């Protein structure tokens, strides 16, 4: 598999499965923390502790906060 960010990735199928599993895990944690009453920012700060310079350089376009807010919005839409 070839990734435009990482280049050639050996055993692409396994890497994609690992990425899928990681994203499902993040989704589950966001939902659980939201149901416990945490805010989007609190959830983001607990799950994404590392801050990357690209977030600031991109004007927030590459902010991992978008992952948290999109999961919460999808959950709310599924409920209604």
Would you kindly provide a written description of the structure presented here, covering whatever features stand out?
The protein has 4 helices and 2 strands. By secondary structure, it is mostly helical. The longest helix has 24 residues. It starts with a strand and ends with a helix. The mean pLDDT is 93.
Strand order of the largest sheet: 1-2
Categorize the overall geometry: globular
Poorly predicted sequence stretches spanning 5 or more consecutive residues? none
Ends distance: 39 Å
Total number of beta strands = 2
Give me the Rg, rounded.
15 Å
Order of helices and strands: EEHHHH
Keywords:
about 80 residues, mainly alpha, two-stranded antiparallel ribbon, 4 helices, 2 strands
Question: What is the secondary structure topology, with strand pairs?
Answer:
Elements: E1 2-3, E2 7-8, H1 12-35, H2 40-47, H3 53-57, H4 65-79
Antiparallel strand pairs: 1-2
Helix pairs in contact: 1-2, 1-4, 2-4
């Amino acid at each position: 598999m070839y990734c435009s960010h990482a280049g050639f990735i050996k055993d692409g199928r396994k890497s994609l499965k690992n990425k899928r599993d990681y994203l499902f895990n993040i989704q589950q944690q966001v939902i659980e923390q939201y149901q416990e009453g945490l805010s989007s920012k609190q959830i983001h700060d607990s799950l994404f502790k590392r801050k990357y310079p690209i977030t600031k350089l991109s004007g927030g376009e590459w902010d991992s906060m978008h992952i948290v807010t999109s999961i919460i919005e999808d959950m709310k839409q599924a409920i209604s």
